Amino acid sequence: MKDIPRFRYCFYLDFLANELDENSENALDNLREQADYVRILGSYPQKSRLVGPIKDGVEQMKHMTVDHHDEKVRRLSSDDKKPKPLKIGIIGFNQLGQSLVRRMATQHKFSCLDDDDKSEEAKKLGVDYYPSFEIENFVHGLDIVVVSVPLIHLEDTLQQLPVESLKGKLLVDTSALSSVPKALMLKFFAPNSGVDLMTSHPMLLFGSPHEKAYTASSTWDGRPMFY
């Protein structure tokens, strides 16, 4: 304990550049070499403006009243709204894909697409199954598309996705966290493609296929879904 510094400083840095620019990436890499801790809080367009529910929420917060005695803040109107179920499509209906359905089927509507015939598995879980050649019909109407395929098949899978049909949707990769999935997603879906991208890695402890560990709450509790 004697070797731990008594005080440590934390600095916030805001600069005008794209996080993905070569100069920015080099500067951040160099900073990581010099600092014990570096965290990127966000990258956003210059002179951007808030729109939609976020803008409305911020406007309401400007007029919020604070009761310093009870330490209560007035609630926003959106706090009482019931969340709208999402339409989620899973590409690759493997153990992970099926586990996601078991976990969230009561809150959201699921469909799946797979090269192999997964109609029986999908039927048991109440999920609509699509073969790979019906990818256009599969994507139509979805809010989120989850890619749940082995990393070795990720590039081929992303290459086959219809970019135009994915505009306005969130595309989520579930491969092991590394620079490869991010690079592949940016390769096929440029920042101006209109497709929102997320790389994730569900931190699960799967049991054997004969065990029912996939539905046990202990498999999920306390473990992050993504970083």
How are the elements arranged and paired?
Blueprint (H helix, E strand, L loop, with lengths): L21 H13 L17 H11 L3 E2 L4 E2 L13 E5 L3 H10 L4 E6 L4 H7 L2 E4 L3 H5 L4 E4 L3 H10 L2 H4 L3 E4 L5 H10 L7 E4 L28
Supply Rg.
22 Å
Spatially, the strands of the biggest sheet line up as 5-4-3-6-7-8
Mean pLDDT: 79
* Name of the CATH first level of the domain at 87-219: Alpha Beta
What name does CATH use for the topology of the domain at 87-219? Rossmann fold
What is the overall number of helices? Answer: 8
Number of strands: 8
Overall geometric form: globular
What's the helix-strand series? HHEEEHEHEHEHHEHE
Q: What's the quick description here?
A:
It contains eight helices and eight strands.
Give a written overview of the molecule:
The chain is of the alpha/beta class and 227 residues long. It has a domain of 133 residues: NAD(P)-binding Rossmann-like Domain (Rossmann fold), CATH 3.40.50.720. Helices cover 31% and strands 14% of the residues. It contains 8 helices and 8 strands. It has a 6-stranded parallel beta sheet with strand order 5-4-3-6-7-8, with helices on both faces. Strand 3, helix 3 and strand 4 form a beta-alpha-beta unit. Helix 6 packs parallel to helix 8. The two termini are 30 Å apart.
